[in-house]
Amino acid sequence: MSGPLLQRFADVMPLLLAGARTAVLIALGAALLAAMLGTALALLRTFSRSRGVLLAIAAFTEWQRNVPGVAHLFILYFGLPAIGIKLAPVLAAIVGLGLVGAASVGDILANALRTLPAGQREAALATGLAPWQAIRHVLLPQALRLAWPGFGNSACQLLKDTSIASAIAAPEIMFFARNLVTSTFDTTLIYLAVLVLYAAMLVPLGAGFVWVERRWRRASSAP
Amino acid sequence: MSALPTSAGPGAARAAGTGAPITLTAAQRGMQQRSTAAPPLLQVDGLRKRYGSAEVLRGLSFQLQPQETLALIGPSGSGKSTCLRCINLLEKPDEGRVVLDGEVIGQRGEAVPGKPPRWMTDRQLAPQRRHMGMVFQHFHLWPHLTVRENVALAPLRAQGLDRRTAESLADAMLDKVQMAHKARAYPECLSGGQQQRVAIARALAQRPKLMLFDEPTSALDPELVGEVLGVIRALAREGTAMLLVTHEIRFAREVADRVVFMDGGVIVEQGPARALIDAPRTPRLAQFLRQMPDAAPVAACTQEPC
């Protein structure tokens, strides 16, 4: 590969940016799944009295925590067709990373719910709120604030983990980067561009979480 | 006042198993009316509660008349708070029954003597709990909501008022406890006394039939106690029915119509507030009153230092 540095950079960026779009799509989809399923898991873990449910959730959480994400993606993408379910690479990545995220969101949120004083729920029930109203209006909003920094970490982890979706040919950043490397051999420049691209997405994401956290803190300590 | 029949009437039989509240039949209410001037607002029958091997309530029965302020006093661990929490069923008694304004609280189906009652779920209890406002020792305001939002939440969500009505109700209740000027503040920014007054406003906004106070001043710095007692005193003067668990003996004597003295999970003595505190009939109450620092100058207390 020859030519001026900026020119070479400009040549690879369009493909990498297309990859970034896919990465963001995967991350958003997975985050949505993780938020919904994770919240459900946390609520079940906190309020269910069924031993079976608690055991199943614990098993799911441990499984997700102790198996590498790429192995999950392989099972979803290469394994599921054996029972007749074929997922597109992007969809398999969303489901796979979403399940990993759900386990971590569920864990963080359940811990936050556990640290709320019992009086918070009792006060809600005593005013005549139904249990789900107490959860919706009193417990979850507080747990969300406590869990927020942890969610920030999970979100950043999730966005970084989209890179493993290249292993199942989802057209995200690393997928295009590797293709570009094999066709241009401009290895250093391409992977540097990849680094810059990830940083350009992750730094604002982290800052966004901190900004929301600050806003909450300022609101509750205003006179 | 004779005890209510333990077997409920046909109305209750119909409600059995459905989770619907049991309402006393007209005949049963009639019996109550004949035996006293007016039916009691609250009737507590034979409450028993055990935690492991410790029996905290050992068959507790008393009544509270409409518009009455009843103070529940007694040493720490005598079961006062447990009793209060058994009335709105934050704790489920092992035995016994609570009747509020003719409605049996929280029981499903007929009571079977000797068997623990079958309690409603929290969801089924919600409409009944609405009628009992509770003020906790540690306030338990919701920190993520402003003062106004704290007070308006139950009217909005439990009573189904629209937002504007709920908020104007909240403002009216805050006005009542002199906290209207802090409507937009968060609980964190308030003193303990202010927080407790907001908590009282929150309970009042339920428009309850009965207010339950669980040691409302015990967690406060001494100089903040007065403002909370002032609010409770004003409510008593308005004829709000209140059950007040307190260590403020002097205040109980001044504000309560009657006092119930508990020790070891049973009622030792009850009677008109002044008579009971000025001239205890049992040695246990006399001894308890001697130990209470603020009860000592009781006889001399005619002004309102609180």
Textual characterization of the structure:
The complex is a heterodimer of chains A (223) and B (306). Chain A is mostly helical. Chain A has helices spanning 5-47, 51-66, 69-79, 89-115, 118-126, 131-161, 173-184, 187-221. Chain A has a single domain (5-217), classed as MetI-like (MetI-like fold, Orthogonal Bundle). In chain A, helix 1 (5-47) crosses helix 4 (89-115), helix 1 packs antiparallel against helix 6 (131-161) and helix 1 (5-47) packs antiparallel against helix 7 (173-184). Chain A is flat and about 75 Å long. Chain B is of the alpha/beta class. Chain B folds into two domains: 10-131 and 208-300, P-loop containing nucleotide triphosphate hydrolases (Rossmann fold, 3-Layer(aba) Sandwich), CATH 3.40.50.300; 141-207, no CATH class. Chain B is built from eleven helices and eleven strands. Chain B has helices spanning 10-15, 26-35, 80-87, 122-129, 147-157, 163-176, 192-204, 222-237, 249-255, 273-278, 283-291; strands spanning 22-23, 42-51, 54-64, 69-73, 95-100, 103-104, 132-135, 210-214, 242-245, 258-263, 266-272. Chain B has a six-stranded mixed β-sheet with strand order 7-8-9-4-10-11, with helices on both faces.
How is the biggest beta sheet of chain B arranged? Answer: 6 strands, mixed
Strand proportion of chain B, as a percent range, falls in 15-25%
Order of helices and strands of chain A: HHHHHHHH
Strand order of the largest sheet of chain B: 7-8-9-4-10-11
Based on the structure given, which CATH architecture of the largest domain in chain B is correct?
3-Layer(aba) Sandwich
List low-confidence stretches of chain B. Answer: 1-19, 29-35, 296-306
Write down the secondary-structure element order of chain B: HEHEEEHEEHEHHHEHEHEEHH
Number of helices of chain B: 11
CATH fold descriptor of the largest domain in chain B: Rossmann fold
- Largest sheet features of chain A: none
Which homologous superfamily in CATH is the superfamily of chain A? MetI-like
Shape of chain B: globular
The largest inter-chain interface, given as chain pair and residues per side, is: A-B, 26 and 34 residues
Quaternary organisation of the protein chains: heterodimer
Helix content of chain A: over 70%
Question: Residue-averaged pLDDT of chain B, rounded?
Answer: 86
CATH homologous superfamily assignment of the largest domain in chain B: P-loop containing nucleotide triphosphate hydrolases
CA-CA gap between termini of chain B = 36 Å
